[in-house]
From TrEMBL, chain B:
One of its GO terms (cellular component) is plasma membrane. Keywords: Cell membrane, Membrane, Transmembrane, Transmembrane helix, Transport. It comes from Cryobacterium arcticum. It is found in: Cell membrane. GO terms for biological process: siderophore-iron import into cell. Belongs to the binding-protein-dependent transport system permease family. FecCD subfamily. The chain crosses the membrane at residues 31-54, 115-133, 139-161, 170-190, 210-233, 262-286, 298-318, 330-349. This is Enterobactin ABC transporter permease. It comes from the Bacteria.
Amino acid sequence: MKNHIQGLAPDDVGVPSPFAGVLRGSVSRRRRLRIASALVVGVVAVIFLALLSLAVGSKDLGLNEVWTGLLAADGSRESIIIWQLRMPRTALAIIVGAALAVAGVLMQALTRNPLAEPGLLGVNAGAAFSVVLALSVFGATTIDEYLWFAFLGAGAAACFVYVISARRSLASDHARLVLAGAALTASLGACTAIITMFDADTFNSYRFWVIGSVADRGIDTALYILPFVAVGLIAAFVSGPSLNALALGDEQAKALGVRLSLVRVIAMSTITLLCGAATAAVGPIAFVGLVVPHLLRLIVGVDQRTLLVTSAVAGPVLVLAADIVGRIIQRPGELEVGIVTAFVGAPALIVILLRGRTR
Amino acid sequence: MSRIGERFLPHGYARLTLPAGRAILLHRRSAIVAVVLVIVTFGVAALTISTGAYELSPAGALRVFFGEGSTLDRFIVIDQRLPRATAALLVGASLGASGAIFQSVSRNPLGSPDIIGFTTGAATGGLVVILLVGTSTAATIMVGTILGGFATAAVVLAIAFRRGLTGDRLVLAGIAVAAMLAASNDYLISRASIEDAEAAKAWQYGSLNAISWPPLVPLAIVLVVVLPAALLVTRQLRVLELGDDAAAGVGLNLTRARTFTLAIGVCLAAIAVATAGPIGFLALAAPQLARSLARSPGVTVLASTVMGSLILVVADLVAQRLLSPFQIPVGLVTSALGGAYLVWMLTFAPSPQRRRPRLRIPRPKIGS
């Protein structure tokens, strides 16, 4: 809490009220420069990694091959590899990375818990359970059929997590909420496993989907979830100032003129939209929403507005990098992006833990 | 030792004189709860044995034990249902006792084999043996399971241990390591052939579906030796729960007591996981449920043991009947219910900071 308040106090001298800068945009020039440079670096990194993602794989392409393949969508070998195989997964990694990272920021602001993360708290598990239900019971096969189930599951789980996070025993204790989320994940995972137990076909597709992978999804998957994620991101950016006020506590936020229930409903629906779409497209990926905001807080501070915008850029960097690393370290095979993020994110959680910043 | 409870008898306790001039203190309500739970457990076990997909009347099932009934009846009851019910009883008992010991030593209701990663690590160890090593006999799976469990628990404890174990660190380290292992488990399963994957997934969650008499022998032997020891260390556990300083102050050798009790707890968890696979959340839930039933000041090993048996027997009945004739692995039933119970416990039970043990001043017994 201490950090939040320090970060929210405006840097420029001469603003009379300590909270004057919270709702309107008063950010010092040095701060603005820093945020702008972080954004530029992030965007450059995304572009660079996207090109790398088009070039690296079981068949490596040179940079000029990527260029010609990109420009000339003729039937040549390079252009097929790029447009059919690598472009969809690159696009998907960018979309999903932005969605998951922003959802993480929202969740942390909403629960006022720096360890809150949709993957750890069971939101993705809720979406996964719902999707498996759709696959096996309702016979859904394509994303446009099961996406709505993913929204339903993610929404239910997010509501549940939010309701329990407001309980006094969990609101004050960050680790307890994470544990409750892990227990919810375990419980939902067991229910999912029961369904896949006696449905061999569902199990066979489920075991590849549950890891979290952007490979072999097709460009239509990326295009299908794009509008949902875009709406979610815009809603998140718009609610940034209110989330800043929310960090001060319910009463302060109310005094600043924030309509608490409206903000909460918007944030919850946004989390649902982002996590549901991401999980339906690539499977449950954890830790993106934990690692990205934590790193960004060290760089750009704790203002939710900048945090939201920068994580929409930094999330794709992480997921793209994880996907590329997964393609490199196990040649000619691949390691799924969900495994790489778990092995990056879990040690990050341990580092956060060892530095004792959970309280 | 023999003078225990002669002059001061703590509230709610009874003095139990043992043959060799020794005596132990018994929490009265815990003992009563344990007896009631034993009766209920055997009732449910009897129900499990006498019902099932194969039509057999309870009387018919009973006749089998007196050497009557057809060969098929005998096969179903003696070789199919009885070992399964026995396994549920024994595995549940050892997990319950193990959970009680872990929670007591770590002075934390969350300090159970599930949270410190023993169960997930055991699953990874077993999966590595089944899917990578290729020679998956019962013995090699057992070895892989136990090694995986120990290695994971050691890693989690090493991360979390800094000037004693605090609940937060233990929990978060456990979650982080378990997340990595779960990703590895999913990876291993996705890389296996579909036949291997089906075999692994049946085992991964902890199952009693294919249990027979031979694997129960080592379990029974270990239980006969270790379970009485687990019940006898209750006294040291009570003292350990006072905190390190107080426990050392009343003359307990801390290192020895902790090592000994933890060795018992680990042994029980390992043999249970090796027999039935990783059965989730049982070791966490059983001691807490037993404690709230018995209203005892600390975790009670006896009541937890019986509670563990009862939960697993009931869960096994559910696993057999819920989607009959399809058999759910019992570990999934305990995980689904245990996870929900943990959420409930964390959300609605008062937090440990607020629940201070009420100090009960022992009343001097007048006239003895």
